């Protein structure tokens, strides 16, 4: 089960411009004239040159073209867990495979969120995801509203990026597609407007739960890791496999501190602007 990760063991977040190969001709069309969305949201055409079989889900590593094997030390340490399980191990405070509401609260506090936001996270996460993950053990609801690590794949929701597959594995092609479609300026990061554009593009019909979950997840990510008004690709990859959470806690406990993220009030204003920019344009 998980142990504390030392900030000195892991690489610091990398905000250098990542690999951005030029557009590559595939020999077949990736868009259709009668569907403008296929032209405005091109898939990543270059992944096969950097990652072996990028469409095949990785069982225990979050791979990208910048890190084809993911965070190798982290993947070795937690190689018995899928990337989706790795994503939540930070909140498994006593390594028992169960995340109690107070584990969720303590984890968010350790990441720097205030009391009110941490309580909100408990309500959203444990109330909504306890029963789906409980199904790996029983059809009866859990009276403690625990989230079960071994059943977290059952909590995968719609209207997402499909970077996690239905079993919780990591799909490099889907991860690269996010940036190929929405990183319009090619700087290896997504602005808040681009995040809202991505959420708009990923929406499935009649899926209000998935829409709300996406807004909460990406909004929380923005609050935690934005730098210079954007979320950077390597940081996002570290959120997907959970490795960044350990680094943030270690940084906050050190003299250097954690220099990314936004205050809640500032982020709400930025989010409102991003929402208006994206949805009014539509």
UniProtKB/TrEMBL annotation:
InterPro entries: Caleosin-related, EF-hand-dom_pair, EF_hand_dom. One of its GO terms (molecular function) is monooxygenase activity. Keywords: Membrane, Transmembrane, Transmembrane helix. Residues 170-205 form the EF-hand domain. The chain crosses the membrane at residues 111-131. It comes from the Eukaryota. The keyword Transmembrane helix applies. Residues 1-69 are annotated as: Disordered. Belongs to the caleosin family. This is Caleosin domain protein.
């Amino acid at each position: 089960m998980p142990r504390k990760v030392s900030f000195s063991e892991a690489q610091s977040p990398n905000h250098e411009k990542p690999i951005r190969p030029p557009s590559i001709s595939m020999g077949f069309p990736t868009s259709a004239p009668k569907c403008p969305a296929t032209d405005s949201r091109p898939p990543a055409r270059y992944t096969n040159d950097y990652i072996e079989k990028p469409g095949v889900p990785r069982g225990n590593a979050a791979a990208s073209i910048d890190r084809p094997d993911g965070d190798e030390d982290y993947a070795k340490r937690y190689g018995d867990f899928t990337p989706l399980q790795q994503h939540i191990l930070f909140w498994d405070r006593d390594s028992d495979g169960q995340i109690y509401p107070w584990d969720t609260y303590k984890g968010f506090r350790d990441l720097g969120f205030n009391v009110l936001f941490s309580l909100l996270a408990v309500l959203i996460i444990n109330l909504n995801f306890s029963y789906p993950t409980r199904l790996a053990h029983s059809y009866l609801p859990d009276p403690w509203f625990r989230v079960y690590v071994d059943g977290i794949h059952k909590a995968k929701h719609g209207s997402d990026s499909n970077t996690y597959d239905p079993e919780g594995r990591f799909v490099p092609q889907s991860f690269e597609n996010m940036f190929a479609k929405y990183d319009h300026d090619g700087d290896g990061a997504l602005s808040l407007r681009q995040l809202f554009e991505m959420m708009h593009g990923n929406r499935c019909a009649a899926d209000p739960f998935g829409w709300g979950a996406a807004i909460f997840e990406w909004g929380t990510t923005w609050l935690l890791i934005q730098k210079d008004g954007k979320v950077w690709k390597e940081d996002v990859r570290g959120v997907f496999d959970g490795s960044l959470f350990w680094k943030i806690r270690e940084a906050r406990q050190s003299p250097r501190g954690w220099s990314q993220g936004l205050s809640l009030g500032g982020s709400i204003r930025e989010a409102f602007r991003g929402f208006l920019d994206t949805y009014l344009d539509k």
